[in-house]
Amino acid sequence: MEQTKRVIALGFFDGVHLGHAALLRRVAERARELGAVPAAGTFDTPPENVIVGREQVPLINSPGDREGLMKRLYGIREVVTAHFDEAMMRMDWRDFVTGYLVKEHGAVHLVAGHDFRFGYKGEGTPRRLRDLCAGLGVGCDIIPRVELDGVTVSSTYIRSLIAQGETEEAARFLGHPHILSGTVVHGAELGRTLGTPTANLTLPAGVLPPAFGVYACKVILPDGTERPAVTNVGTRPTVSDGRAVSVEPWILDFDGDLYGRTIRLEFYRRLRPERKFPSVEALRAAILQNAQETRAYFNR
Prior knowledge:
The chain is α/β, with parallel strands linked by helices and about 300 residues long.
């Protein structure tokens, strides 16, 4: 059987930001020219975490959300995810290209960013990649840095914006709203007694929560429809003494059972920091005010 031909973008793609977009658009363009499958090659965990031996880098997105963004926004049809372990860390950069990408995954063209490093001790560089590809008869594009307002677009910078709750600014550098997907689980159901029932999500492992507070969001329901939502991110200090971080959207204009279903949140604007209110009644009044602000935001 003839092997599938793939044009593969190389990177970790956390956030799938405007810099990544330049790679992924080039992949789609080359795939059309070559009659190949547009694909992205990534790892299941940040390489830094394996190299230093502990979790070092919080993720902007879960692997599933990264894949979804690449497919929905940029026409990527396949995401090739390698398990990054010690064996992968020690793999020679040439073997990664010739054995893993070309022989195993049918790469006929590779696209990488200007600062892409790979292979043992990061010895694979964009220049070496281009030279090796030329010898193999494989195409190669190296994409220059992407800047916005004089700032280099990077996952590190966007991570800092999300950690500060600056989701509108983060969206400018991402090229789309910051997203978070999760499965709806049972909570304390206090929101139901307040008339503001929430869909409680557990934060995916290793994913950075936005700064604690209340956000104007959109929720994409399992059937693909969108609804505005008032979303609290934090530890619910008015009603809980715990430290567990929860993500709780109150989906406006929606009445249905979502337990066990996966929903996707898009974060637009931080409305206020999370705070401890003097009473449950004061909390309810603040949530209703935030609902008005959310409706006004999306009705602009």
